[in-house]
Amino acid sequence: MEKTLPKSIFQRFRQQQRGRTSLDRATADAIAHAVRVWAMDHGATHYTHWFQPQTDTTAEKHDSFLNLKTSIVNGVESTVAIDSFSGSQLLQAEPDASSFPHGSIRSTFEARGYTVWDTTSPLFIQDGPHGTSVLYIPCVFISYNGEALDEKTVLLRSNEAISKAAVRLLHMIGDTEVRHVHTSLGVEQEFFLIDRGLYSLRPDLKICGRTLVGSVPPKHQQLDDHYFGQIPSRVLATIAETEMELYKLGVPMKTRHNEVAPAQFEMAPIFEESSVAVDHNLLTMQVLHRVAHRHKLKCLFHEKPFKGVNGSGKHCNWSVCTDAGENLLDPSVKPESNPRFLLFFIATVYAVYKHGTLLRAGIATSSNEHRLGANEAPPGIISVFLGDQLDEVLNAVEEQRELKSFSQHQIQSVKVGGTVLDLKVATLPPISRDLTDRNRTSPFAFTGNKFEFRAVGSKQSPSFPVTLLNAAVTEALLEITSVLEEVKGDKPKASLEDVLTVVRMFIKKSKPIRFEGDNYSQEWIEEAARRGIENITSCPEVFKKLLEHQKLLTETVPILTMAELHCRYQVMVERYVKDLVIEGNTLKTMINQYVLPAAFDYRKEVASTLVSLNNLGMDINDIPEKKVLDEIGNATTELVKLENKLCDTLEKIVTINDLEQAAVVAHDEIFNLAEKIRIFTDDIESKVATKWWLLPKYSELLFQL
């Protein structure tokens, strides 16, 4: 833009980006003209306003640059085709608001909505068919009355809120040169890649994104041989091509590797400002999906596509940075005497303590419900892990004493000298050691100079969980600032001792949320209960926690109106019910069209064999075929009973008008019935001969790459 726009126009645009002015018509028209020329020079024939409705994905409608111009010359009317793109077309468009999740904000006869260009996120071009391409304009999505119907608007509001609160606190301790603060985000994306031909034979994967039936093979991940192993050639080709496509779009991918489960992988970018990082994560998912298709693979983003092996998460590495690029969560050499670090560090810990159930609501989905609490993902209990050294820093500050020395600490046979590891091998150099260890069981862990929100689901947009985290930390910053003002008194700036006094107060308040041990253990579940930390496993119950934090979200840090808050609650509940009803109907179909026919056919074959043997004079009670027949018969009988109960529940839920009640029924009956049904479907699969079992098995899905 700087190269193609007049200097005055570019300066006005930069001022608008910083929130200091709005774009006037002349500036918008000049930008639109330059954008169209640039886009068409790169083969673009269409443009689209690209936005993020409450579907955890993106939406787009393509319009061409083509226009018809009619003129009259010497009394003769002529029409010619021209390419044009105005400032108003760049700034906004009108999608149908009632056709997206809206939580009753819109109705069918009130359909108008608007997409508005988000100037903080770069425009980009994606390749289209036949050598053409499309210009993408990142946008927010609002209703006719201005309510936010998308994921991005509230994220941008939360970013502004945390910036104002952070700048005010920094000025109080003397950092008056800081004018703006932004949240930084790095999103680690986990996913499965499976053969597309096998995927096409699994109705549950196609409709629900996860397998509703299927037994775990004898070998899966128990040997720990897939994690960080050699990437299969077809997968490596897919990921490498994805990276190249993403580089074209300005997405800075950094890391790729095998994950723990067979057929599971991860990609991660360099960290960016959070709103751009969210855009780039959603782009990453789209490009992965598209490129995998070209390599005859299917990319699965569901949090738990395969029972019995690890599920997938979206680890959100979150930090706070100044406009000079300084990370406010960098502990530095002496964190105990670094006022900026201590204030922002304890503000985040306190925010999680005070609003842990809000963060839990932000990660609650029907798909993530299968992953959280399993032995490869953080549990539903929200806690914070700091690591030995930073835990000791907070303890020392609280107790007003010197730090304990870690110099004599032993890790097996490796001596730790300060922050350096001496490996006692002449050919290996000493290596630096981080201030914190890693705790992969923690849902919210400090990992050096950032917090890693590990509990976010792989299929989710990271936008809403990060929005809620921003809001919680903003309130904590405001509360800390208020207390620091009292402690500081009339002094021009707060001293280190003032800061330590305030930090000490909030260390004591937030201590129950800190946990350094194994989050999977039964001991932690019991200890968390003693500390008053909630362990909510049911999505319908978790969703209600969103409304319990109404004051925070609508008043203290007003990133949502009351209508927008209830909209999000209703969308979450409605989506949950629909997801489980779809899964229930899919499971019913698979039982009747795949599982039972296979069991009946095989049982008929075995019974025929028994009749033949009986005709030969053999005692059928003494031969193995009889045992097989009885076992299949018993499993089939129980399965039919449960399938009938499932049908009754699906019919009942349609008649329930109260959405909250429907969600409870969906969880208590459909969710639990599906788990019971799976015991018998998987048992039948393990007994029926392969030639009768038409569904690809886990041994094929997970190991055919």
UniProtKB/TrEMBL annotation:
Q: Which InterPro entries does the record match to this protein?
A: Gln-synt_C, Gln_synt_N, Gln_synth/guanido_kin_cat_dom, Gln_synth_cat_dom, Gln_synth_gly_rich_site, GS_Type-3, GSIII_N
The molecular function terms in GO held by this entry are: glutamine synthetase activity
Q: Which PROSITE patterns match?
A: GLNA_ATP (PS00181), GS_BETA_GRASP (PS51986), GS_CATALYTIC (PS51987)
Name all GS catalytic domain ranges: 151-595
The GO annotation for biological process reads: glutamine biosynthetic process
Q: Describe the location of the GS beta-grasp domain by residue ranges.
A: 45-146
> What Gene3D superfamilies does UniProt report for this protein, alphabetically?
1.20.120.1560, Glutamine synthetase/guanido kinase, catalytic domain
Question: Would you say which domain of life the source belongs to?
Answer: Eukaryota
Q: Where are the transmembrane segments?
A: none
Record's family?
Belongs to the glutamine synthetase family.
Q: What is this protein called?
A: Uncharacterized protein
Organism listed in the record = Piromyces finnis
